[in-house]
Write a sequence for this structure.
């Protein structure tokens, strides 16, 4: 997603660029779910697997809410629309390194 935001600074206005970046983002994001299910399925016992999966899946809703808020604040407070893509990417990258 940060490459979509960088298009603002690189002055890229091509629809093809944005389509390719969305495809790349989707391909990268699609790799997460199968790996998550495999890991949780192998590490967590059958008795508590539903609870753990429910807790794990709540991150999607929380992330959508917080990501929308961060992007909205960035878009509102700064006149450059590209930062509304870059700020959430920085937060996600930082959390990924931390966790």
């Amino acid at each position: 997603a940060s490459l979509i935001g960088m298009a603002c600074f690189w002055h890229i206005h091509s629809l093809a660029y944005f389509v390719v970046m969305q495809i790349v983002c989707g391909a990268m994001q699609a790799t997460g779910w199968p790996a998550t299910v495999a890991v949780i399925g192998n590490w967590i016992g059958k008795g508590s697997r539903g609870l753990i999966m429910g807790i794990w899946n709540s991150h999607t809703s929380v992330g959508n809410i917080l990501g929308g808020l961060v992007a909205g604040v960035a878009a509102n407070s700064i006149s450059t629309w590209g930062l509304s893509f870059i700020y959430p990417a920085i937060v996600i990258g930082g959390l990924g390194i931390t966790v």
Q: What stands out?
A: The chain is about 80% helix and 0% strand.
